[in-house]
Amino acid sequence: MKKEIILTKEITKIYKVGDIKVNALRGINLEINEGEFVSIMGPSGSGKSTLMNILGCLDKPTSGFYYLDGINVMDLNDNQLAEIRNKKVGFVFQTFNLLPRLNIIGNVELPLIYSRREQSRARKDLINEVINSVGLADWIKHKPGELSGGQRQRVAIARALINNPAIIMADEPTGNLDSRTGEEIMAIFQELNRSGKTIIFVTHEIEIARHSGRIIYLRDGILCGEELVKEPVDACKMLENMPKLEDKINNFSNNNSNVI
Ligand code: ADP
Ligand code: MG
């Protein structure tokens, strides 16, 4: 039996800027089941980030109802909201949002500090395990400035996983990456989904959305359509046919030597 992990009823969000009101969301009804991989597509300004922030308990709707894993989010105060967010949701952003002064370990353990888990061997093991799972075991002492965009996003994914949340939410996580690196990140999300995580993804690229099982279309703060993806793109298969950066450089120098 499928269990609803997210249920919204007529959610609205009005931003007030001085005397002006912006209707960012105008009545969103959404159901997402545990274990689904859903992407939310829409043009810039359609309300994707606003919706994501509400679903992830970073912000509250102006009106409507939101149940997260059966909990009525509208009833929670700010502390309770922060607690449920920390427990249930891991976030990944387009711009990575890492702390530049901390190395990978420091960045990945941040959510644990907020949830006040005690220092222990188990905690160190957990941090290392999560960093290994995104393929960064050799880089743990490096700071974000010493990493590529793809590696930074892997750190952000590790940080999102550290509290073992049921849901991973990602707002345009491949937006700043080249296509191969973006595909590698999609492979990680697909693997996480196969291992049981619910994934909710915002993108404005249809090629990226086709990696998910369901695409929801947002326009002017309204859900205006949805599509089940019969055969989602398999990122691992895609990667087999995509040149690596080193290959591109090799080809380039080979071609160049031919010309010379
Ligand atoms: P998207 O992520 O799809 O680009 P957003 O959710 O960021 O869209 O924005 C939806 C609408 O709400 C836009 O018109 C945007 O200008 C407005 N908006 C977003 N955040 C704020 C804010 N903090 N204050 C005022 N208006 C905002
Ligand atoms: Mg946005």
Keywords:
four-stranded antiparallel β-sheet, six-stranded mixed β-sheet, alpha/beta, Rossmann fold, globular, 260 residues
Break the fold down into its secondary structure elements and pairings.
Elements: E1 4-17, E2 20-33, E3 37-41, H1 48-55, E4 63-68, E5 71-72, H2 78-88, E6 89-93, H3 104-114, H4 121-133, H5 149-161, E7 167-171, H6 179-194, E8 198-203, H7 206-209, E9 214-219, E10 222-228, H8 235-240, H9 245-259
Parallel strand pairs: 3-8, 3-9, 6-7, 7-8
Antiparallel strand pairs: 1-2, 1-4, 4-5, 9-10
Helix pairs in contact: 3-4, 3-5, 4-5, 5-6
The chain binds adenosine-5'-diphosphate and magnesium ion.
Adenosine-5'-diphosphate binds near residues 17, 24, 49 and 50.
Describe the structure.
- Helix 3 (104-114) crosses helix 4 and helix 3 (104-114) runs parallel beside helix 5.
- The model has no long low-confidence stretch (mean pLDDT 91).
- A hairpin with a 2-residue loop joins strand 4 and strand 5 (71-72).
- The protein contains nine helices and ten strands.
- The chain has one domain: Rossmann fold (3-Layer(aba) Sandwich), CATH 3.40.50.300.
- It is an alpha/beta fold and 260 residues long.
- The protein has helices spanning 48-55, 78-88, 104-114, 121-133, 149-161, 179-194, 206-209, 235-240, 245-259; strands spanning 4-17, 20-33, 37-41, 63-68, 71-72, 89-93, 167-171, 198-203, 214-219, 222-228.
- It has a six-stranded mixed sheet with strand order 6-7-8-3-9-10, with helices on both faces.
- Adenosine-5'-diphosphate (ADP) is lined by residues 15, 17, 22, 24, 42, 44-50.
- Adenosine-5'-diphosphate binds at residues 15, 17, 22, 24, 42, 44-50.
